[in-house]
Amino acid sequence: MRYRIHADTVLTVDDAFHIFQPGQLTWEHGVIVSVGPQDSDASPVDQVINMAGGIVMPGFYNGHNHAAMTMLRGLADDSPFFEWLETHIWPREARLSAGDIYAGTLLAAVEMIKSGTVAFADMYFEMDAVARATELSGLRGWLCRGLIGNEDSDFAKLDQSIRFAQDWQSKASGRIVPMLGPHAPYTCSPDYLARVAQLAVENDLGIQIHLAESASEMEQMQQLYGKTPIGVAWEAGLFESRLVIAHGVHARPEDLPYLQGMSGGIVSCPISNAKLGNGIMPYAMLAGHGIPLGLGTDGAASTNSLDMFLEMKAMAWMQKLSQGRPEAFQARTALTMATRGTAEILGSPGGVLAPGRPADFIVVDGTHASMTPQIDAVSNVVYAATGADVLYTVVQGEILMAEGLLTTLDEKAITEEARNRLEHLLG
Question: Which of 4, 67, 73, 78 has the smallest count of CB within 10 Å of its CB?
């Protein structure tokens, strides 16, 4: 079927950052056919959706997540980073079953769809459960098993990751892209990282990893190897594949030669980095040297919310504050990072509304008091809107939410299941 949506505003995030007021978007077979002014396409369609006051824009690509950590939301908040991780999070994660992770991923999917996310990159374990939940939800997922190399001396878990990639490649109508996920250089030795790098090249897989997230990590890597975490990753060969770096808070000038020209990029998680006291990514330095940059939420155990609107706000506010100049970071930059920028890091053509691109988009309600007046639609979306303002979420042309109602998932049943599983995790 061919669909067309009419709205007061269409934000394309294309090369020219076209904004059509009013505008239309037409799609068929999961692909955008046309986008432009209201009457720019008169071809017949099977269904027309009229969204008076609506803002059509690319859906968010959440570049770093641990989706099933919704099950641990609020656990040990306000604790120091490594205490939070080693004393509270890891022991609870050891109790998680495949069923818990399936339930937690579905819970995350509900939250993401309702707040306008169309795709996410995920690192966790029991990835078959994550993939099944992702397939059911209708979202896109770049999925990898989190690998703790210090606990995988026989490479059994790495071998499982390869089998997962082989099993799920091209499944879910191409919405699932398997990757490899070494957790970090402080949990994976250089030899282990080198083995991951080798298998990634041999199997044509991308890699997700946490790098330069905390000051403690920087000190530890310097003491052990005399290098930055990014330098350790480079020496191990991880940059030979598409590399999705989570955080990069403490990226340094000496890392720039490794990062320039890389396939992939750095995904900032500003709320998680602030909440855990890890710092602010040096955006100006990285962007000034052409490093691809995107946005993610991190898991709900550290960031509490999977609302990418909040991440855009936090990114903008923190960069303006850290540089002491309100003009140092623009609303359009935040929107681009959260959509097209992250999609490009993941190797996806999404994040842009243009003919031939995937029909991955959302509709934001621009009629609320908090969105009025609409002097600048981009400014309103970045600085005023929240996930609660999303009315429609569409992925690969399939409507996953219409008028605020989910079409693929039973929200009530999913939230009840998550609550019922909580006791054995916290006991």
Answer: 78
